[in-house]
Structure prediction request, 244 residues.
Amino acid sequence: MPPAPPYVILDKNGPHPGPAPCLAQRLAAADRVLMDVGCGDARFIHRLAREEPAALCIGLDAIGAAMRPVAVKASRQPARGGAPNLILLVGDAAAPPAELTGRAEQVTVNFPWAGLLRGVTGGDPLLLAALAGLLTPRGSLEICLNLHSFQETGLRDSLALPTLDPPFLTTTLPQAYGRAGLAITTCRPLGDDPLPVGTTWGGRLGKGSRRESLLIVARPVGALTPDPLPPADRLPPPPSTSTG
Prediction:
């Protein structure tokens, strides 16, 4: 059997290898596990850890440098912004630590980019399967997408993204998720609604550009009956012909 992919734990002293017992012990003591995949600067998962002190909150990103300030802050006393229930991991979202399999009550993916963005829109079956594998039997995968990346033809093509038209959102995407063992229960644009996340990028979108975002919620197949997908007039607008 091949060895599990390596991963790195990031704390105030910087990155270091994450031995399995370290993560396994924290998981064994946790009542609930919440994860943010592609967590960027980790501000969202840090905020969540502060709001949910009884939960073990885990941020995972391929690049650790942006998470370092939060790693330092999380190590402080709670009165000074510390979050002892926060773990930050550096690694591949498509190959998370095996100890996390079936442990997360909620997995969020907020404003992904590049490979992670392609993956959650059906372009990487291994990534979708990995995200599904993190969930408890009744857990939820909650994804928030910036639609600007899909609505400008030049940008969409450069990132090799699909066209988010009604056939794709009501048929192709649910089929891709179904093959990963997930049922989409919500797929709707947020429009002028407040963004449901507290990420740095989400804050920029909400303040300045007013660009629409798409919310996708999925659960393990069999966990519940999916709500009907929205009718065509509630799906994102068709892509523009802009190249810029």
